[in-house]
Structure formats: structure tokens, C-alpha cells
Amino acid sequence: MKITDVHAWVVVPDLGPDSTKFPDWQWTFVTIETDEGLSGWGEASSTPRNGSLLTGFGVQQAREALIGEDPADVERLWQKLFRRYTYLGSRGFASTVISGIDIALWDLKGKSLGRPVYDLLGGKMRPDVRLYANGWFGGCSNPAQYAEAAKGVIASGHDALKLDPFLEMQPFHTMYQDGQISAEGENQGSDIVSAIREAVGPDVEILIDAHGNFNVPVSVRLANRLYDESKIGWFEEPVPPEGLQALKSARDQVRAPICVGERLFTRWEFVPVLEGGLADYIMPDVVWTGGISELKKIATMAEAYYVPISPHNAQGPGQILAGAHVSLSVPNFYRLEHAVEFIPGYNAFLQEPLQFTGNRLVLNDRPGLGIDLDMDRVKKAVHPQWVF
Fold first, then answer.
1. Coil, strand, or helix at residue 362?
2. Spatial separation of the C-alpha atoms in residues 35 and 310, rounded to whole Å
């Protein structure tokens, strides 16, 4: 079997209430065709504005390195692409391009062998994938609204939810400024989390995402306050992702569990985090860190340190499917993130809907990723600036 074509499709999803919050949201799908009629698909979406257009262009430029190759050689093709970007930098943009192609190759490999991807990764460690809910708070702006929305998502069967309660920082989402927050902003965040805790009771996990917006003393103060007041389950990205020494300083002072990793790319960037004991959980992103191949390797590395993985998931349906297949196959899995309000957007591009049951995602036993793209819908939703 030989690869005959590789194509990126940059689409504009309808995310319902979140469409107004993220007016420039885009997803990049990847399709790989072969001379035997089999095809595979993956995802290489990025953020922020127009990030997916850039990664889509990167996928198109990788075509010439892949056409004529045997798609079964997933590891060799991963290495070929990774080393191709040495001078550009093999992290971030490049690893996202590689991720989309890698996921499509695994889907294709599963289809060619007649087995689901999780079987090729070693088989099931568990019958389904446990989730935590994000994206459940659209339109909320005060503690009472967050509390009411939290009760609704728990009533739907979830027992863990995540949010960034620091509304003052939202205009600077993941864009570190001076590491500070006002007293009013801190108190508002604390009030939101306290209201949620009172609404959902003591047994629901509340996970806090700081988006790397804070310096060391501020992150320590915020994390410890929320842990002492509301027993949060983790404090995510307390400091910017490039600051490993800052992360160590925060780790030494924070009482809450720490989770990092959505902005760490490839196994090499997880080595110092694991060796230094800098996090209680890691959250590699399957469409940013290097695909199914790399997520599986990172999980195996983390297993040796008894650190659970909780894959980040804030993009499209290829991301949640690929992350779920790896999550099903590794022993040190904790929970998979999913955005509740994105579910209609996921399903709009699939030939059949994802199977969510309360706080679980159930994968079928069909070959590859198990669900194919609906290419008619994909083509109708192509971004107006996408010219390929």
C-alpha cells in the first residue's frame, strides 16, 4: 500500500453558545488516501486566531514527504517529519502538523488490519473512558450563575468539572502579562469556586485552570487559597509553561495537586517535569504534542514515575477520539477532558455521534478510530480563507 494524497481541511465549527466566545475558532482535519482505496483521518487544530490555517498549510507542505510512502510505517514517518523540522523547531507548530498526520496514519493502520486503534496500542485497560467536564459555563459571569450551571452538569452524570474562575484574566487568555491579578479579581475567583463547591457538595472534583497567567508568588497564593477554602482537585498551569524553575518553586509551596502539560510538546519536554517531580498529573494534548504515537510514549514514561495522565482536549472530534484510544490502553490514565458545549460541534462532522454516557465516553470496536468524518459536511464548512 502506498500513500497517494495528503490533504488538510480547515473548517469553521458551529459551537453553539461558544461560537460567540470564540468567533475565530477553527479545526483542521487531515485525510490520507492510498492506492488501495483505504483512507485515514486525523486532526491538527491549533489556537488562537488563525492557528489552524497555519497548521493546515503545514500539512499541505508535508505532502511531498509522504506521497509514495508505505502508511504502515507509522514510526518511521513520524521520525521523518520530526527531523524534517529541525531548523524550524520541532515543537509547537511542527508537532501539531505531525500530530494530525500521525493520527490519520493510525486510523489507516487500524482499518487495514481490521482492528480498532486501542487494540494496536495493547488493548483495553478499561471498558470506557472516564471524563471531566469543561466548557459547561457559557454565559456565566457571577458566582450564582456558575453554581447553577455546575449543578446542571453534575445532574447530567459528571462528577468532575474544570474552569478558570479568574474572569479578570480572560482578555489575556494564556498570554502572560505581569503575572498579577487585582484583589477584586482574586476575590471574585474565590467566590465563584466557593459557590460551586457549595452547590455540588464535597465529593465532586473541582479542577482549576490558571492558564499560566501568574508569577510564582501569585500562583502560590491563589492555589493555596482555593485549596484551603474549597478543596480543589488540582491547580493547572500555575506559571507559564516555559518556566520550569518557576514551576519547581510553585510546586515546593503549593498545597494543591498541580497539573501541567497541554503546552509541552513531545516526550522530551516532559522529561524534566517527570524527573523533577514538578507535577502530580500531566496533560499532554494528542493534537499538539505529536499524535497518538507520542501520547502513548509520554504515558509510558509517566507510568514509571507513577504520574497519571489526563489528556488535554479543547479542539475537535479527532482530538477526543485519538485521546480516548490512548486513554483506553494505558494503565496510568486519570480522566480525559471534554468540552460539554462542543458535543454538537463534534458530531456535526462525524458520520455518527460520539457515545457519551454520563461521565464516560464509550468507543466502539470498529477498525481505526471507529468513526469517520462526514466529508460532505466538512467541505461545506471549509474556512473562507482556505484555498487548498
1. strand
2. 37
CA angle 107, 110, 116 (to 5 degrees): 100
Q: Decide if 7 is catalytic.
A: no
The predicted-structure confidence for 228-280, as pLDDT tens digits, reads as follows 999 999 999 999 999 999 999 999 999 999 999 999 999 999 999 999 999 99
**Interatomic CA distance for residues 161 and 147, integer angstroms:** 12
Fold for domain 3-115+373-380?
Enolase-like; domain 1 (3.30.390)
- Number of helices (H), then strands (E), belonging to the chain: the values are 14, 12
Report DSSP state, residue 34.
E
Fold adopted by 119-362: TIM Barrel (3.20.20)
Q: What is the pLDDT of residues 131-151, one digit of tens each?
A: 999 999 999 999 999 999 999
C-alpha span between 42 and 321 (Å, rounded): 9
Angle at CA 191, nearest 5°, toward 358 and 188?
A: 115
The terminus-to-terminus CA distance of the chain in angstroms comes to: 25
Work out the angle at residue 151's Cα, subtended by the Cα atoms of residues 355 and 260, and round it to the nearest 5 degrees.
70
Active site includes 312?
yes
Q: Of the residues 7, 158, 312, 325, which is catalytic?
A: 312
pLDDT tens-digit map of 279-312: 999 999 999 999 999 999 999 999 999 999 999 9
Choose the catalytic residue: 211, 325, 338, 383: 211
| Domain extents in the chain | 3-115+373-380, 119-362
